[in-house]
């Protein structure tokens, strides 16, 4: 049967235990946020998404734990019921809608800083899993005097509610075996035998709920004590898979030639105002102060570095190993640059805030250059009044009706609100005859939205992205 999530945590004892043992760890200097990543895929992809949920959970856990500022977090494999009814296609046949979608819920405790806040956390998870819909877990408002802590408690209950759910456990066990077999290599049909022993994982998560400590020095012992009490009160938590993230060795060791080489490459990228982001190398365009834009893929960049006499010999020797490490989207051996999708950098130290709809002094400090970037750079003098020119003329010509024009401009603006629009809000669709200007309106986004995030709809009703 498909995995069916519980509506709520069904144990008052566990709720009280979470309040008593976890909430006191969230001091005034810390923040807590809860979110859920849901894979709302088509019927043909639903079983693949469920089978891969174990590896997706491990990968997202790694991404969250690598964020500077995160102290500890809960992650729990779950599912989300589909409220949509089965629809009929053009042939009047009923198309199947999955009963539930696989998901992973997070409750993250962090210290807010320039590189770690709620928006960055959601964006980071989404960037790692572009197929997932990431949304905040919302709970009903409480009349309790300590509203913040009560909200955090209710969000935590929602995150761990499926800790002992048998249908979720079954999905995870199937995924566990599937991912392990794929990681070891799938045997051929000739090699399979009926009496083959059961495949048991020692690496992938074996129960839905897990707690991971990132700030080990401050929270290792306190969380371990809390987990012991939680387990005695009935919470099922995975403690067998290195729940405490610990670096036994420094990331760059002179005893390791590959690590030392990557360390030198990292220094070179900083000197050249280059940065790594999801298998691509970014650079600072002429005229910008903080914005980085895509330059080339990692493999091409490493070939360019072969011209450097200092790096050449070692890079030739370890080229494949370095390329494999740096080309992985979740690479953490070099700090990847992050993007503030609300900001568009313009000239003279100003940025345009999309949400505020106005120019502001760039809020990113100089010390964060190469670590945090606006989403794009447009050489524009914000001190002078804008001259819309062709844009205004095109808007009036294409949409002469005032009401239609206002609705179009509002939808056009919503296209820039990356990862902020609710899933069910209707997005912009422009319809018209051939050569009526539809493509011209979409082309304006190419300056502020990377080409890899723009897809077109084919005649077969499939999304196609040229750059993915």
List keywords for this structure.
single chain; 3 domains; Alpha-Beta Plaits; 14 strands; five-stranded antiparallel sheet; 468 residues; alpha+beta; 14 helices; four-stranded mixed sheet; globular
Short description, anyone?
With 468 residues, the protein is of the alpha+beta class. The protein contains 14 helices and 14 strands.
Explain what the structure shows.
By secondary structure, the chain is α+β, with helices and mostly antiparallel strands. It has 3 domains: 10-81 and 99-181 and 204-241, 2-Layer Sandwich (Alpha-Beta Plaits), CATH 3.30.70.100; 257-338, no CATH class; 388-453, no CATH class. The protein is 34% helix and 17% strand. It is built from 14 helices and 14 strands. It has a 5-stranded antiparallel sheet with strand order 4-1-3-2-5, with helices on both faces. The chain has a 4-stranded mixed sheet with strand order 11-10-9-12, with no helix packed on it. A 3-stranded antiparallel sheet has the order 6-7-8. α1 (12-21) packs antiparallel against α7 and α3 crosses α4. 27% of the residues are buried. The model is unreliable at 86-91, 184-202 and 240-255 (pLDDT under 50).
């Amino acid at each position: 049967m498909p995995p069916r999530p519980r509506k709520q945590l069904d144990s008052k004892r566990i709720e009280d235990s979470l309040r008593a043992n976890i909430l006191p760890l969230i001091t005034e200097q810390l923040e807590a946020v809860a979110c859920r990543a849901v894979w709302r895929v088509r019927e043909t992809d639903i079983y693949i998404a469920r089978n891969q949920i174990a590896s997706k959970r491990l990968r997202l856990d790694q991404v969250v734990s690598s964020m500077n500022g995160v102290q500890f977090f809960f992650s729990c494999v779950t599912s989300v019921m589909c409220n949509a009814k089965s629809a009929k296609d053009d042939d009047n046949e009923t198309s199947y809608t999955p009963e539930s979608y696989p998901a992973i819920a997070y409750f993250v405790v962090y210290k807010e800083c320039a590189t770690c806040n709620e928006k960055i956390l959601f964006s980071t998870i989404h960037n790692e899993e572009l197929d997932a819909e990431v949304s905040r877990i919302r709970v009903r408002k409480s009349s309790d005097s300590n509203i913040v802590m009560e909200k955090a408690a209710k969000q935590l209950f929602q995150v761990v509610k499926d800790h002992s759910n048998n249908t979720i456990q079954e999905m995870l066990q199937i995924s566990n075996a599937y991912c392990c077999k794929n990681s070891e290599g799938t045997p051929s049909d000739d090699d399979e035998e009926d009496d083959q022993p059961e495949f048991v994982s020692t690496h992938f998560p074996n129960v839905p709920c897990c707690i991971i400590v990132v700030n080990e020095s401050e929270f290792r012992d306190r969380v371990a004590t809390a987990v012991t009490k939680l387990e005695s009160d009935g919470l099922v938590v995975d403690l067998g898979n290195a729940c405490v993230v610990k670096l036994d060795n420094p990331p760059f060791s002179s005893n390791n030639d590959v690590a030392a080489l990557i360390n030198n490459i990292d220094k070179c990228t900083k000197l050249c105002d280059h940065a790594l982001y999801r298998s691509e190398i970014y650079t600072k365009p002429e005229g910008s102060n903080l914005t980085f834009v895509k330059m080339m893929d990692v493999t091409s960049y490493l070939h360019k570095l072969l011209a450097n006499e200092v790096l050449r010999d070692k890079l030739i020797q370890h080229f494949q190993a370095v390329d494999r490490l740096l080309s992985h989207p979740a690479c953490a051996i070099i700090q990847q640059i992050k993007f503030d999708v609300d900001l568009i950098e313009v000239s003279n130290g100003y940025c345009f805030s999309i949400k505020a709809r106005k120019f502001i002094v760039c809020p990113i400090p100089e010390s964060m250059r190469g670590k945090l970037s606006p989403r794009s750079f447009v050489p524009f003098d914000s001190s002078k009044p804008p001259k819309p020119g062709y844009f205004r003329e095109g808007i009036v010509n294409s949409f002469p009706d005032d009401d239609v024009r206002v609705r179009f401009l509002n939808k056009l603006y919503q296209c820039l609100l990356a990862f902020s629009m609710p899933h069910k809000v209707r997005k912009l669709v422009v319809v018209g005859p051939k050569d009526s200007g539809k493509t011209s309106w979409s082309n304006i986004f190419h300056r502020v939205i990377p080409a890899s995030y723009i897809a077109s709809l084919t005649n077969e009703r499939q999304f196609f992205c040229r750059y993915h």
